[in-house]
Amino acid sequence: MSKQKTEFVEEVTVKLSKLEGSGIIKGLGSLDRRFALAGQIAESYRRIRYVQIIQGREVSRSSCEPSNESFDPLKAAIVEARAGRIDESLWMVFYFVHFGKNLKGGWRYAREVFNALGQQSPWTWEITKQNPKAFRKWLANNIPLLKRQGVPGGFGNHRKYTSLDANASDQTGAAFETYVNWIGPANTHLERFKNLTSDCADCPGSRFDTLYQSMSSVSSFGRMAKFDYLCMVGKLRIFDVEPFSVYVANATGPKKGGKLLFGGNDSANLSNDELERLYAVLRVELDLPFSMQILEDAVCNWQKSPAIFRAFRG
């Protein structure tokens, strides 16, 4: 562990100890558990910092080229945003979240779908929004090639129940079409976001929540996908949103982990509202950028191994 990470973990461990002393946290009780949770918070913070770090670096144009195996939709989103192509940038965020990075196949699914397997022009936002049904038809015709044997592929861990199915109402074809419909083919992303949040208080959390609720119309985007997408929009500084809630009502790991952390066991009698309140207290006490996203991720991973830190990646 680097000196910087060690110091960060020690700092977080002290904050957790203070919260234990105040009675807000009841599920630690030992140095091992405090260290394990602090380690998960450090890991989650590292993932947030990664986005900030690459935003400050020169990003190779090859990362945006779907014909290149180094294609990375997150880096492509950064390059497109720098060039002022916000619609294409947020379209890459959609690809980033929808497909995820597979532990073995990397970004192959996202790259090959975006590149239309080299058969035609890439499925950019400008092209896809004009005829999302044409995209679904193309996808249906090419699933066997995308899933060909002997070449690692697949979705990321957060999307492990997603498939390439072009026709099912809750899979890739529908996700693309309903995303286009959510933005509206006549709108830019920013126009849509501003219209949806026009009645919000000038608060990143309020804007996040409004967009989160609206995004339920995007097929296959449940709690985690909506959360991840909007967090990335905020981290890329494209639109000022930040989660002030974990959305535990539809969560699994963050709810179980929250009960363990705040109630002392994973079946503690804590309502969703109470869990949200306690998460909010912890967010304020940690005082880190995007604290709620860090906690959502860290507590979910911590509850899998409460006394021994394990890095969960992929």
Describe the protein's architecture and organization:
The protein has 14 helices and no strands. With about 325 residues, the protein is mostly helical. The protein folds into two domains: about 110 residues; about 130 residues, no CATH class. The longest helix is centred in the N-terminal third of the chain and has 25 residues. The two termini are about 20 Å apart. The model has no long low-confidence stretch (mean pLDDT about 95).
Oligomer description: single chain
The number of helical segments is 14
Shape descriptor reads globular
- For the record, give the distance between the C-alpha atoms at the N and C termini, rounded to a whole number: 20 Å
Largest sheet: none
What is the chain-wise order of helices and strands?
HHHHHHHHHHHHHH
Alpha carbon gyration radius: 20 Å
Domains (count): 2
Uncertain runs are none
Query: Can you give the helix content as a percent range?
Result: 55-70%
Q: Which band does the percent of strand residues land in?
A: under 5%
Mean model confidence by pLDDT: 93
**How many distinct beta strands?**
0
Structural class designation: mainly alpha
Q: What's this, in brief?
A:
With 314 residues, the protein is mainly alpha-helical. The chain has helices at residues 3-21, 31-55, 73-82, 86-99, 108-114, 125-128, 132-146, 172-183, 189-196, 204-214, 223-235, 253-263, 272-286, 291-302. The protein is globular.
Keywords:
single chain; mainly alpha
Record the SSE blueprint:
Elements: H1 3-21, H2 31-55, H3 73-82, H4 86-99, H5 108-114, H6 125-128, H7 132-146, H8 172-183, H9 189-196, H10 204-214, H11 223-235, H12 253-263, H13 272-286, H14 291-302
Helix pairs in contact: 1-2, 2-14, 3-4, 4-11, 7-8, 12-13, 12-14
